[in-house]
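so my prof wants the structure for this chain in the tokens format not the other one, which i didnt know existed until like an hour ago. anyway here's the sequence
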Amino acid sequence: MTETNSKWLVVVNPMASVGKSGKDWPEIKQILIDQGIDFDDILTEYPRHAIEIVRNAIVEKGYRKFIAVGGDGTNNEVINGIFTQDVVPTNEITMAALPIGTGNDWRRTFDIPLEYDEVVKIIKAGHTFAHDIGKLTYYNDGDPKIRFFLNAAGTGLDEMVCSSTNLMKKQGKGGTIRYLISVVKCLFKYKITHVQLSVDDELVFDDDILSLSVGNCRFNGGGMMMMPNAVPDDGLLDVTVIRKVSIFKFAANVKNIYDGTFIHKIKEVQTFRGKKIHIVSIPPHSLMVETEGENLNNSPFDFEILPKAINMVIPKEPGQKKKKKSRFKKKAKK
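here's what i got, hopefully its the right format
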């Protein structure tokens, strides 16, 4: 086995947040240097490049610590680089995220700040959290494919909005307002799909859906609290299903979707929790899926949880700014 490299490898997606990541990287790099972080850095050059970079860095160069600079999609690629190698156990690897992207949903569960210097201080403090990871099996032209995720995945309207948003980002457009406009447009276009949902091998749902989310953490879709009861180290995936609902009712509950209270206020919403999730669409293969903003191919979908599979750097007391009692246990830096 390659000798362990004690440095951090900083993986920068210069295209995140419509190019903001690339523009801000020199400033971030200087902050890392000023804080005494020992690191090497590399910029991605094309989609999914970070997967290759991280996998090679572990297997060929001995890196065990990674900082993802970008959005949730960058986090996802780094995670998949870590989990598609079999040389080093993933629970021996540490990852930090410096959020710059459009959605930044994973960081919301842990109240990780957006100020670069504050995030670097958290990385330097070195408190880590044994985080669950989701594993998704989906299909591409009939062939099964696997994708791992840190935060959440979604199908139905969720995936359609994600696809529309990604198209806008390619056109240099972004922001919350544009995202909400995309949601409204997709509400008019989306065709309701019938789904059979099984949790831990038991059929629990057999009906039409508007949207379906599966996650380790609470937020998805740019700050929407789609899984308000999710806990990222409980060994379970949380599922939120929204059945067919009128456009007007959905629009009237946008605020409730952002604060998570919609699961109690919209009767068409159901929630489930389990270790294994199986989703079949009728007609077959009619649903697409997204994981952390990355559009993938079609149903059926199988989700499973990998408990406490990676060490994520988080604040010493998540939620401290809001004076909340932390729900998350952490490990002190050795």
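also thought this was worth mentioning. The chain has two domains: 5-127+314-322, 134-307.
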